Amino acid sequence: MPHPYSRALRAHTASDEGIRLQKVLAQAGFGSRRKCEQIITEGRVEVDGALVTELGSRVDPDKQQIRVDGSRIHISGRHVTLALNKPRKVLSAMDDPKGRYTLRDIIGDGYERVFHMGRLDYDSEGLILMTDDGELAQHVMHPKYEVEKTYIATVRGKLSGSICRRLVTQGVLLNDGLIKLDRCAIVDRSREHTMVKVVLHSGKNRIVRRIFDAVGFPVARLVRTQIGPIRLGEVKPGSYRVLSRAEIMALDKEVGL
């Protein structure tokens, strides 16, 4: 028996406007048109939260949210998401009245609608995600979804394992509240520096630097290597790569899309 919402949705979408739903699914990589029709009739497709089980519905993928088996679909070429490796002395912005080097200088003019999801401070390096998908950006940056961020911090001095553990179990009180690391592990030590891998959810301004300043180990170098499931990988400083469909689906899942 068709789902009761499917009739109401069909009346709204089965006009001459929009694209046939099975064609949209095919463009998103779900197989042949016939296979996509089968996915619809099996009751696996939702449009704007309403189940669609009858063929002939037309949709606007730019304005409507389409899900298969609960996951948001992605049409090839409709949105782009980039993983960029920001060097030091690059501003986390698309332009700068002072003429400093920005993210736009790295990606060029090929992605006019792309904007950055979060920032790194001027002296920090590493992964910045950029997209023209407003819904994805909103979820990635919203504190509600607590996306993990991984950093390699090189701090001045010999940081002990006990301080690392304390930053995880007890945290440190900053002027804007108590903050804890999710994980902290010493990677390497020299006579003057300690390299530490840290993971935390907070996206507050200069949070990693402020945490280590508070315990007396100022950060000499900071590199963000991962945001949620997305790793920086082999992207060289000052370069970027386009995320794969599998990576975008993993990021969607991470932030509840």
TrEMBL record:
It is an enzyme of class 5 (isomerase). The keyword Repeat does not apply. Its EC number is 5.4.99.-. It comes from the Bacteria. One of its GO terms (biological process) is enzyme-directed rRNA pseudouridine synthesis. Residues 19-87 form the RNA-binding S4 domain. Signal peptide: none annotated. The keyword RNA-binding applies. It catalyses: a uridine in RNA = a pseudouridine in RNA. It holds the Pfam family S4. Gene3D superfamilies: Alpha-L RNA-binding motif, Pseudouridine synthase I, catalytic domain, N-terminal subdomain, RNA-binding S4 domain. SMART domains: S4. One of its GO terms (molecular function) is rRNA pseudouridine synthase activity. Keywords: Isomerase, RNA-binding. NCBIfam families: pseudouridine synthase (TIGR00093). Belongs to the pseudouridine synthase RsuA family. This is Pseudouridine synthase.
